[in-house]
Structures are given as C-alpha cells and as structure tokens.
Amino acid sequence: MDLTQGTTEEKQKRAKKMMLWFGIISLVMSFAGLTSAFIVSSSREDWLENFILPSAFTYSTLIIVLSSVLLFLAKKTFKNSQSAITTSLLIGAFVLGIVFIYSQVQGFNQIIASGYNFTGPTSNITMSYVYVIAVVHIIHVLAGIICLFVVIINQLNKKYSNKNRLGFDLASNFWHFVDILWVYLFIFLYFFN
C-alpha cells in the first residue's frame, strides 16, 4: 500500500499510528539501554547479590495486567455498542493505573525499610538501578493514565464511533505496551540479580 495515497483524514490516521510506533520503539530502546546497563553494572564489587524485590512490585504487576484485561474488554464491548459497560471498564482500567502507581510507591517504601535509599550513605548501586527503572516506567504509566482519562471523557461525550475510534485505539495500544513493558521489567529484575 502506498502511504501517500488516500484522503487527508486517512493520511493523518496513519501518521498518528506511525508516531505512536516510533514512540514505542524509542521506549523499547531506552529500557533496553537501562537493562543493559544493569547487566554490565552487575559485575561491580559493590553490587548487591540475591536481592529480593518488594512484594508490592509483585502486586503491582498483577494490578497492571488486570488493567490491561479491562481495557481489552472495553474495546470489545465498544465494538458491540455496549457504551455503559465500555465506560465502566475504562474507568476500572484508569483506577487500576492509579493503584499500580500507589503499589509502586509502596514498593519504594519497602526498599527504604530494608535499608536502601536512592542516594546517600545508605544507597546501593543495585537498588538505585531498581529505583530509576521503576520511576521511569511510572512516568510512562502517568502518560497512559492521562490518555485513559481523555478516552473516558471522549467516551462520556460520545465522541467515538466504530468509524472514529483512533484516540481509543492509540491509548489502548500505548497502555498495553506499558503493561507488557512492566511485566518484562519485573521478570528481568526478579530473575537477574
């Protein structure tokens, strides 16, 4: 298919989808860099071996996966013209996004309670990496929450239809990416220490 063909609206839709994919690819590269630096740094003498991730990170993983399931179901009910159920599922995914961030903060509190701060005399390079990776991910979850909020407002104002749901699709794709990214990061941090 020739990308220069089609109406202006079709071209704009393709451009917006392409921009999302460029953004996702750049995020994949950024987190690949962070996890690669984590691996390289693990050969340092002061590296903390066999650290245990906070239990709150496990709960947050389950929470974000559940939010993605709700968003998947929201898209399905939207296609079936079940507007009230779609709105409820979107709100559920939004709330779980907020709960995810709360759970991550609880994980930071658990790390601090175990004696490791981000900086200062009680800091450790290993836990500093964990902080940085989690905080950078949280920033992207916040962006996803803002996107979900906009989708909810647009859904309540009936701005979407089966022919016009680009914003819904883009927000959904970004949210699923952020979810998959956290699952990868959690597995990486859990098993590589």
Question: What's the short version?
Answer:
By secondary structure, the protein is mostly helical. Helices cover 77% and strands 0% of the residues.
What characterizes the major β-sheet? none
Q: Enumerate the spans where pLDDT stays under 50 for 5 or more consecutive residues.
A: none
Q: Could you say what the CATH topology is called?
A: Four Helix Bundle (Hemerythrin (Met), subunit A)
Distance between the termini: 46 Å
Principal-axes geometry comes out as: elongated
What would your notes on this structure say?
Helix 1 runs antiparallel to helix 4, helix 2 runs antiparallel to helix 3 and helix 2 (55-79) runs antiparallel to helix 5. The protein is mainly alpha-helical. The protein has a single domain (8-191), classed as Four Helix Bundle (Hemerythrin (Met), subunit A) (Up-down Bundle). The mean pLDDT is 92. The chain is built from 5 helices and no strands. The termini are far apart.
Task: Describe the protein's topology.
Elements: H1 8-41, H2 55-79, H3 83-113, H4 125-156, H5 166-191
Helix pairs in contact: 1-4, 1-5, 2-3, 2-5, 3-4, 4-5
Features:
193 residues, mainly alpha, Four Helix Bundle (Hemerythrin (Met), subunit A), 77% helix, 0% strand
